Amino acid sequence: MKKRIAKIERKTKETQIELVLNIDGEGISNINTGVGFLDHMLDLLTKHALFNLDITAHGDIKVDDHHTVEDIGICFGLGIKEALGNKKGIRRFANASIPMQETLANVAIDISGRAALVFNVNFHKDKIGNFDVELIQEFLESFTTNAGINLHVNIPYGSNSHHMAEAVFKGIAKVLGEAARFDERITDVPSTKGIL
Description:
The protein is an alpha+beta fold. The chain has helices at 36-49, 66-84, 134-147, 161-179; strands spanning 5-11, 15-22, 29-32, 52-59, 93-100, 103-110, 116-120, 127-128, 131-132, 150-157. The protein has a single domain, classed as Ribosomal Protein S5, domain 2, CATH 3.30.230. A 4-stranded mixed β-sheet has the order 1-2-4-3, with helices on one face. A 4-stranded mixed β-sheet has the order 5-6-10-7, with helices on one face. Strand 8 (127-128) and strand 9 form a beta hairpin. It starts with a strand and ends in a 17-residue tail after the last helix. The mean pLDDT is 97.
């Protein structure tokens, strides 16, 4: 079966991003965004979704990380959308509960063609190292909007912000990898509308 691969380039006055995504991969990543914590989160996502992901980004991080994180979310969303193609034969839905020490993340996804993000995560700090935690939601807003995905992320309990962020990205990895998988019983687009 043909590998589902996307190549995305985005160049603005604020960022330059090149992304190559293989959603039928082995969990191999080569990520260099200039934002260390985001690199770590995307490496986790790649590993646990069994995607292959290469990202090179140059952004105006001398200002702050916002534009770089947002634009990588845009590119990742566009990459997922392009790699999925017409979505014929995919499972479409998935959910996962991911523990990370004292934290639990509940994540659900619908690759529906309609964008929505529900993000019920209350971080206890404004920063993880030098990374502004509010940029996690910013990344996910950009990602879901450009991928056309419904994503619900809930953390009912947790105290360590790093653990909470890891649980979120591992949860997204598991549901995205599962929902994008082919099911041999699904011979068409998984929708009564006939299109996603």
